[in-house]
Specification:
OB fold (Dihydrolipoamide Acetyltransferase, E2P), three-stranded mixed β-sheet, alpha+beta, elongated, 9 helices, 2 domains
Length: 285
């Protein structure tokens, strides 16, 4: 309980002087960006041309120095709408780029014109990263670190390229994480991680945390991995002591055992028979 109240106090203290309107920010981890992309390349813009038959679009030819994910190719052509980014500036500067690319058809919900493109930038503001200069990005990794150096960014992408994840898991970044501090907008920061073996490993470390909110996040992440070992872990958490004090408009306050509640929900989802734990405990006047 003490950890939860400290978390709330720090978030409120940080939020107050920065801005009047709280804003939930969202970001993908570099691991999810990589897993979700069809192709990730490093290279330079060789040519920029107006896209035939599609006013307001560029065909951007990229000379590939390295394919970090996907089949190697000497060049790729990426369809980019004018106003999204400035590939002419990239070409003029001879900028080294890191591009997270998807098949054009994956972006037709954003614009039907993408259906005519072989490749497009992955959706999101960090789909094109300029690697020139002392600092880049930033991007953010699964351990909530800020990656703002060329070497660390490329190493993270190469390591993530073997993931076979096809979906992402959303978490609330902890307030003391570097990524939270970089992305903070006055409220929560929603962060997306690939659902793969690395997420399971992280979740097991989270449920061992002294922070009740981190333990709850760990239980939620383990929901994707209904193994016998994880069933035993969650069964033990049905007696977790962490709670928050909550109350409704017409209801007296209660202690809500957050980790117990989440473990109960996940075990029920897995259809594992277990005794229902005490989740809400009345607070004596």
């Amino acid at each position: 309980m003490r950890t939860l109240m400290l978390w709330l106090a720090v978030v409120l203290a940080v939020a107050a002087p920065r801005r009047a309107v709280a804003e939930i920010n969202m970001a993908d981890s570099v691991e999810w960006m990589t897993a979700d992309a069809d192709l990730v390349v490093r290279g330079q813009v060789a040519a920029v041309a107006s896209r035939p038959g599609q006013a307001g679009w560029y065909d951007v030819t990229v000379q590939v120095a390295e394919a970090l994910k996907g089949a190697p190719a000497a060049q790729v052509i990426v369809a980019i709408p004018q106003g999204a980014v400035d590939p002419l500036a990239w070409q003029t500067r001879h900028a080294e780029l890191l591009l997270f690319l998807v098949e054009g058809k994956r972006r037709v919900a954003d614009d039907a014109a993408y259906g005519q493109a072989a490749l497009a930038l992955r959706r999101g503001e960090r789909a094109a990263v300029v690697l020139d200069g002392a600092s880049v990005g930033p991007l953010f990794d699964r351990r909530f670190a800020v990656l703002d150096q060329r070497g660390s960014v490329l190493a993270a992408v190469r390591a993530a390229a073997t993931s076979r994840a096809t979906r992402a898991h959303q978490i609330d970044l902890p307030y003391d994480a570097p990524a939270f501090q970089a992305l903070y907008g006055g409220s929560a920061v929603w962060f997306y991680l690939p659902v793969d073996a690395q997420l399971e490993k992280l979740a097991r470390t989270w449920i061992a945390s002294t922070d009740v909110l981190r333990r709850e996040e760990g239980v939620a992440a383990l929901a994707y991995f209904p193994t016998a070992a994880n069933r035993r872990l969650l069964a033990r958490l049905l007696a977790d002591p962490g709670y928050a004090t909550v109350s409704g408009s017409d209801q007296p306050p209660v202690r809500r055992f957050l980790v117990r509640q989440r473990a109960h929900q996940v075990l029920a989802q897995w259809q594992v028979r277990h005794a229902t734990p005490v989740i809400d405990q009345p607070i004596a006047p």
